[in-house]
Structures are given as C-alpha cells and as structure tokens.
Amino acid sequence: MLRDELLLAWWRLAKLPGVGSVTLGEIRQNLSRPHDLVSCTTAQLESFGLKASAAERWQNDPSLSDGFDVVQRWRNQRHCGVLLAGVDPYPEALSSLRDAPTFLYYHGDLACFRQPMIAMVGSRNPTPYGAEWAQQTAAQLAAAGLTVVSGMAIGIDGAVHQGALKSGRTIAVLGSGPDVIYPQRHLGLAQMVMQKGLLLSEFAPGTEPQAKHFPSRNRIISGLSLGTVVVEAAIKSGSLITARQAAEQGREVFALPGAVTNPLSQGCHQLIREGACLVQNAQDILQELNLLPEQAQTQLELTEPVSAAVPVLVTQVDYSATSTDVIALRSDLPISQLLPQLLDLELQGWLAQVPGGYMRLK
User: Same domain, yes or no, for 316 and 272?
Assistant: First the structure.
C-alpha cells in the first residue's frame, strides 16, 4: 500500500500553480522511481525544470497540504483507494502517456486491470439499434475476457456498462470525484459497477462534474485501452474526440457503420474515411486485436443469442426508421392487420417503434 508520505509529496507538487499532468509526468520520468520524490531537494527539482520559487514552496509551504485529509479518508474506506502513476497496480498503458493523470481514485475491483481493456463510447441519444448493438457487443467482449471501459454517460455508455456487467468486468471513468455519480440516474448502475467492476477518476473525492472535466476524462478512457470502439456519433461530438485521442495515443480505433441518413452515423463514417477499422460485431474487434484464441471464440459463441428464423414481416423493415405505410406496401398487408403484427414483433424484440415508424433491431 502507498505510504501517506509518498502521496503527500506528489499531492503538494500537483497543487503548485502551473504544474499540470505533463509537468508532473516529466518530473516522474527524471526520477528513478516515483518514491524518490520524497527525498528530492529543491536543487534536484530545479534541474528537472521546476522554477526555483516553486521548488522552494513545494518544500516549505504548509498550505499545499490542504485537502489531503480527504484523500486519506477515501483510502480508509472499503474497496477504495488511490493509485499513483508509475507504481503498480497503476495501469502501465496509461502511465506511458505524456499527460497521464498522477492520481487515480478508485472504488471497486482492481482485478479489472489484469485483463486486456477495450473502450466503447458513443452518442448520449442513440438509436434503439445503436444502444442494443452496444449492449450486446459489450457483453460478448466481456465474456471473451476483456474489461470494457466507458464513461458512465447516458446513452451508449450506459448500455455498454450494462452489457459488460452481464458477463464480465467493466470500468467507468468519471468526470467527477469517485463519490459523485453523474448523471444521477446512473446511481444504481454505478453501484453495480462498484460490485463487479471499477469506478475510476483522476478527480479527488467530492469534486463536482464540470464541462472541462470530460475531455480530460476521455483521454483516460482511451489511454487505458487497446482500442476505442465508436458506436454512434455526430460529426461534432465528444466520442470523436475520444477516438482521435486514441489514435494520437497509438491505439486502435473502431467504428460501427450505419444508415447514411442517420446523423449519428456521420461521425463513424468520417472516422472510417480517416482510417478507423469498420466493425460489425465483437468478433471483428477481437480479430483485429489478435485476441481471438479458441477459448475466446467459444465464449463469444456462447453469448450469441439462440438463432431463430427471422419472421418475414421483419425483413420488410429497415435498420432505420420505416413508416407503417411503406411496410404495408412491402408486405401487402392492410393496416388493420399490420399494426397488431408489428406490436407483437416489437414485444419479441425484433423491432422498435421510433419517430417515423418502426426500425429493425436484429
């Protein structure tokens, strides 16, 4: 377990004005190991690029220790703790980033880090098809032995965590303190993640969510992972930012194609044009990452839904909104007979009612 003395030394350094993740990372690279900061002199810190006045303040200003008691209390709670960059079990893939967060506050099971990690992100207002695909694919990836990482937002993120929890582990990276669940509607989901996965944040306990926190959070989502899967995203969206951060970090980027008329597919199509890997299912992702040994293939097959003959009427409905008039023309059924059948197929999970008609889900 990390000593308070070591954490406090880095806490005080991080509290200095103008010292951010990049500067802290550069100092860490200059040390043989993070533990050596405790015995650093002001002259050594100056040689690492810190201003003389800042180095002197780090050593002598008691106000820099303000707030550290919150960290100590957090560490004393069951299944909670703080990870320090460069010290096991802090994930090595994340630690290698130039702007890696110095601290990671967690609540849950650190065994999540022992598996390969894959990020899945997407729209906060997905189509039913996108949400269903995200949940099913996350479940299959988790069953194949991957830890699925997302950001706990409404929409695709929530579907991803729910799917992964069905068959394995998931990590939710927050844009707030690890004890401040946002959005509130995901409080129940967060409690499930704490039990079977991991809540993770670079922000100290008690930190409220702010808009500026989320791009910062996104670099952790992609930085933890071998690759990032974008399910649905508009051209201007946080999901595309995450994908581009993944590419800059040297990680794989995957995108789910969709209907050309769907604005939420435009971001994915743009990523594919830029070189992202087009994926249709979990197997595509596992194959691209060379993570599809025979055992994983067996696990994946076990999670596939039992195959069933597709009802003829389902084939008359597109994977995008299809009006009842169009379905009636294609099926040659009067509306009075069509509507009850559509309702029945919706209850069976084949279709979803959406603005403009019905959409096929599988």
Answer: no
Round to whole Å and give the CA distance between 326 and 357: 9
**Tally of domains in the chain:** 3
| 244-287 residue pLDDT tens | 999 999 999 999 999 888 899 999 999 999 999 999 999 999 99
∠ CA 298-301-304 to the nearest 5 degrees?
155
Residue 96 lies in a domain: no
Residues 99-121 as b/e (b if ≥16 CB within 10 A, e otherwise) read: bbbbbbbbbbbeebbeebbbbbb
- 81 lies in some domain: no
Q: Residue 209 belongs to what domain range? A: 110-303
Helix (H) or strand (E) holding 219: helix 213-224
pTM for the full model? 0.82
Q: What is the pLDDT of residues 48-103, one digit of tens each?
A: 999 999 999 999 999 999 999 999 999 999 999 999 999 999 999 999 999 999 99
Boundary-marking domain end, from 271, 303, 335: 303
